[in-house]
Amino acid sequence: MSEVDGATLMARSLKQQGIDHLFGVVGFPVGPIAAAAQKEGVAYIGMRNEQAASYAAQAYGYLKGRPGACIVVTGPGVVHGLAGLANAQQNCWPMILIGGASETYRGGMGAFQEERQVLIASPFCKFAHAIDTVARIPYYVDGDAERHLWPALRSTGSAAGPELHCATPCSPLAE
User: Which of 37, 86, 91, 107 is the most buried (most CB within 10 A)?
Assistant: First the structure.
């Protein structure tokens, strides 16, 4: 049995949930997700900035009636991506924002562009969580969370807000 890295597992999990387009800005540490998504048959659409990528993802969610997905770089990239996430929440449009993050073991130590991303994303989405290990990626994207999370993401009329944010540190992506 061959090993699968976290970026590939994330891409496969998104694909299995029907995500066929991924908008974003590649950089540290989400570049491998974009590359893996393309290998798995998910179209990656590079944008000039994270705000544009998040608006594209939320518009896609509105137009298609299923989650639009967006990847953004760590720290300021996530802050810029919140614009589309907040708009998706206010309009009850399904959207997934995947933000890069510093290595898990460096939390609270002033790592490069470290930000409390889950905390700042929480007011704008139904579910926000940091991915702590590669083994947890399917849980957050499609496994056990599916009973609770994905029905909300698939419905466009939820007053509770059908949005998701996952902070993806580079350490689980490389595992």
Answer: 37
Q: Which residues pair with 99 in a beta bridge?
A: 72, 167
CATH code of 22's domain: 3.40.50.970
Q: Is residue 1 part of a domain?
A: no
Query: pLDDT, tens digit, for every residue of 72-112?
Result: 988 888 899 999 999 998 898 888 888 887 766 666 766 66
Which residues, other chains included, contact 164 with Cβ-Cβ below 8 Å and sequence gap of 6+? 67, 95, 96, 97, 125, 126, 127, 128, 149, 153
Q: Is 88 exposed, middle or buried (0-12, 13-18, 19+ CB in 10 A)?
A: buried
Domain span at 132: 6-174
pTM over 0.85: no
Q: Kindly give the pairing relationship between strand 21-24 and strand 127-130.
A: unpaired
